[in-house]
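Data availability (excerpt). The following record was deposited with the supplementary files.
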Amino acid sequence: MLESLFLIAMIILKILAIVISLVVIVLYLTFLERKVIGYMHVRIGPNRVGPWGFWQPFADTIKLLTKEIIVPKPSNAFLFVMAPMLSFGVALVGWAVIPFDQGVVLANVNAGVLYTFAVSSLGVYGIMIAGWASNSKYAMFGALRAAAQSISYEICMGFALIGVMMAAGSLNFQQIVIAQSGGFWHWYWLPLFPLFIIYWVSGVAETNRLPFDMAESESEIVAGFHVEYSGVTFALFFFAEYANMVLISALISLMFLGGWLSPFQGIPYLEQAFAFVPAPLWLLSKISFFLYCYLWFRATFPRYRYDQIMRLGWKVFIPLTLIWVVVIALAVQFHLSPWWG
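Predicted structure:
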């Protein structure tokens, strides 16, 4: 009995640690985004609340939490409120199988990749329910656009994952990372480079970030499927978007960049020199790099037209991933590369 209670308590503590850490990261990711883009645009960015504007995320949170939640009269009130809760929940449950070090994971599921892919695809339901329940034509058009885009690029990401699973011979995240041991030249970004690029670009499109942020309307720019939302309900959508950015960055780091592994493995002097760096810190640094790329892209690239977005997914990425999956299958079958023994 005591052992069961202790086990339950440990699971709850792990969940709280993940959720609290993710909330803090999302808060300061919004602050960093405004600062980085401000720097790139030769502006100052937020600098009024606290030293160097450091408390701005908390001011924004308090503002959103205290604003009135307006539910349109013609809307379906129950679904209108459930949609952001669904998006928020989906953004959290994907972290259940993400390992931060060998053995440091909430649930070491053998089909972890399949679980993550299945859970992340549920985010489309939150978008569609929000657009439909709002009973607004603008919201509905934005939801249809966002759902079509998400589904299209999920297919690209799925085919890219097939290549990683064949190369590692496992659907377990820890086994995929361990299969990349031996230094950065053994990480899958090199032998699976086309899939790495496709997965990364598809991840940006999946999260509806620039230059793929066509969840907003093309001509009216009214925030797309969540145009009718305010206060806490809007904050949940906002949190889900940034939490998904962090999740995509973590998945790329685990599947293509060796996760928590040091890039200096197999290099005697450098491996010893950086032995003091904790393994989770390597993973965090890789995640931070991809998150910075998200901000960099937003400040740099113009928005695609919607037909260009769909053409890129269906006519370029999907055929490329299918071809590369066949190449990987042949390499694995005939041991044509040192990465697939």
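Summary of structural features: The mean pLDDT is 88.
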